[in-house]
Amino acid sequence: MPKTIIEPFKIKSVEPIFMSTPEERERYIKEAHYNPFLLHSRHVIIDLLTDSGTSAMSSEQWAGIMRGDESYAGASSWEIFYDEVRDLTGFEYVLPTHQGRAAERILYGQLGGQGKVFLSNTHFDTTRANIEFGGAAAIDIPTHLAADHDSDYHFKGDIDLRRLEEEIAKHGAENIAAVVLTVTNNSGGGQPVSMENARLTADICRRNNILFILDCCRIAENAWFIREYEKGFEGRSYREIAQEMFRLADGCIMSAKKDALVNMGGFLALRDAKIAEACTNLLIITEGFVTYGGLSGRDMEAIAQGLREVFDTDYLNYRIVSTRYLGEHIRAKGIPVLYPIGGHAVYVDASLLYPHIPVNQYPGQVLVCELYKRGGIRAVEIGSVMFGKYDEAGNLIPAASELVRLAIPRRVYTQSHIDYVIEVFDEIKDAANETKGLRIVKETPFLRHFTAHFEVAATAAAAA
Ligand SMILES: *Cc1c(COP(=O)(O)O)cnc(C)c1O
Fold first, then answer.
1. Numbers of helices and strands, H then E, in the chain
2. What are phi and psi of 226, to 5 degrees?
3. Does domain 59-309 have CATH number 3.40.50.1580?
4. If you write DSSP's letter for every residue of 371-382 in order, what string do you get?
5. Ligand 1: residues whose CB is within 6 Å?
6. Which listed residue, of 206, 256, 275, 371, carries a Cα 20 to 30 Å from 416's Cα?
């Protein structure tokens, strides 16, 4: 049998990619102040900015869009959506929201507040923001095995169980609002969480009477890794594996913009009637009535269908293998990547690629601009532009690492698009020694990475 794993779909509707020359892109990125968030999307050739809301929908999802029942109450689209989410998660109470963070605001607003603590393998940034906005604290306790970026340990998304017990003892179980397991661990490199780790987390939560929530927007991708690498799951379907993980938890938050294969949407699902009732009140005030929340009927149809398609064996295998294809190929060229390759993205360590560029000249932002100039590829810096802070004297306190994320939209790009990206890295590597740093010339106090302006730094090093 041929070994090549092909895209398990045919293309029915296409969108043009507008080609550009390196000279044109040099101008576009300069006009965007060396910040790819400020580029026009039509000036981008391959857009790897995010995998969120960028999936291509299937013909069956589009058919669902046409079937959408837009009745205010009791719509058939709600019943289809509810049945699918209920069957997958096992949770009786399902609250539809316009995206993941709306579900977070409702649940964590309800559970959190001053003096409360949330513990997680890693809180995603909107998760942390919603928790902190409500006055509670969000503490990340990823496994120490994740700190080694080069080992081939397969479950670097795990939570550190010893620290989990320690933090519970330190703050008192009654002050822990919830333990949130993010699967896969997005901010931790898209690394998966093992079933063993989820089970032991559930045990600790149960013993301490603490709520256990899954941030499950990539739970299908996580299930692929469990079947591939964890003992005892060889013959199981991906959906069964996900269902087993849901059974361990008390509820879940989902951004449908990831594994539900749609462009907008989310939900919150819960086992406990009392928490669900309190959350439902907030849903009605801030999102919408219980049988649609933040979604239209057509959205609920597309999500229900997406949740079925994402567990398809051929789809999931293609998805993870194609992400890995990019990562392994650039790694073989000597580009430093976080290893093993995660489910939805490849992370490059820009500080190792540009050892001559100091952190206050933002090696990650430099690589992001190089990718654009040389290939029209858009990626995102996850380093000191995004997470850097200043001390009182105005010196940069850098982020823990200077990464660039190449996130792969689902079902959007073919292998030749990815081969093109791999080829662009040859040029980037050849030019690495002569590549100059950047300095920030304009920024905002919060979330500066979206809007900051940069200039090419005149000299290397300490001046800034
Ligand atoms: C995207 C994401 C969210 C937030 O979802 P939105 O739909 O963007 O609001 C929460 N948690 C994780 C892990 C995510 O990746």
1. 16, 16
2. -65, -45
3. no
4. HHHHH-EE-EEE
5. 52, 99-101, 124, 126-127, 182, 186, 215, 217, 255, 257-258, 266
6. 256
| Cβ burial, residue 290 (10 Å; 0-12/13-18/19+) | middle
Tell me which residue has its CA closest to atom 5 in ligand 1. Answer: 100
CA-to-CA distance for 351 and 381, rounded, in angstroms? 12
Paired tokens of 295: 């979604």
CB 114, CB 269: distance < 8 Å: no
Q: pLDDT for 382-415, tens place per residue?
A: 999 998 889 999 899 999 899 999 999 999 999 9
Closest protein CA for atom 2 of ligand 1: 255
Residue 339 has phi, psi (to 5 degrees) of -130, 145
The pair of structure tokens assigned to 396 is 């940069």
Q: What is the pLDDT of residues 346-393, one digit of tens each?
A: 999 999 999 999 999 999 999 999 999 999 999 999 999 998 889 999
Has residue 459 got a pLDDT over 70? Answer: no
* Encoded tokens for 461: 């090093």
Asked if 365 contacts 382 with a C-beta cutoff of 8 angstroms, the reply is: no
Query: For the sheet containing 403-407, what is the strand order?
Result: 345-349, 403-407, 380-382
CA distance 162 to 295: 40
CATH entry, 22-51+312-463, from 2.60.40.10, 3.90.1150.10, 3.30.470.10, 3.30.450.150: 3.90.1150.10
The domain ranges of the chain are: 22-51+312-463, 59-309
Residues in CB range of 108: below 8 A, 6 or more apart: 118, 127, 130, 131, 134, 136, 177, 178
Give me the pLDDT at residue 463, please.
39
- The whole-angstrom distance between residue 110's C-alpha and the CA centroid of its chain comes to 24
Q: Which atom of ligand 1 is nearest to the CA of 182?
A: 13
Helix-, strand-, coil-residue percentages of the chain, each rounded to 5:
45, 15, 40
Q: Could you check whether 22-51+312-463 and 59-309 share the same CATH topology?
A: no
- Give yes or no for residue 462 having a pLDDT over 70: no
Q: Distance between the two ends of the chain, CA-based, in angstroms?
A: 58
Query: From ligand 1's centre to the CA of 436, what distance in Å?
Result: 34
Q: Which atom of ligand 1 is nearest to the CA of 266?
A: 7
Percent of the chain clearing pLDDT 90 (strictly above): 92
